[in-house]
Amino acid sequence: MARIYHIKGREAALPLPLLAADREQAAWAACLEAVPQGLFDRFWPGPLTVLLPARPSLPAALVNSQGKTAVRVSSHRQAAELARLAGGPLTASSANPHGRPAVHQFRNIEAALLRTLDEHSLDAGLFKGEPPTGGLPSTLVEPLETMSRNRPLLRLVRAGAVSTGALEAAGFCVRLA
What we know:
single chain; alpha/beta; DHBP synthase; seven-stranded mixed β-sheet; 7 strands
């Protein structure tokens, strides 16, 4: 994980999100009981990352200062299979330096990032499998314990591929961070 932080130029105080093959793997890392009814049924697998209480067994480097971890179930077939083969969720990060725009195609990965991968003896050929669908990053939400207008309340931490409108249409009330 330290190499990922270095390669991305990301501070270790910002834990990396986790990518799980399925709900069972996600439950290994986070307390899924904190999730409002229907959220996973509607948006997993897919581009919705959820900030949840971390399980006590999760390494501290994957837990934020509030005791939470970010987890999602991937709809990318190869990524899910890697997590399945690994036997648990994987740390996940986009292929761009921290704070820079998202990369949608392998050929658009910054040369400096590829050089750093090479310096760390990481094979950039790993990125040449089934390409991601591209587009917006995953939406990051945090379920809140309160209700709003008799609907489960989500705090929007990062806007992304799942729109606020889609969350609201699914019966959730969304509050901006």
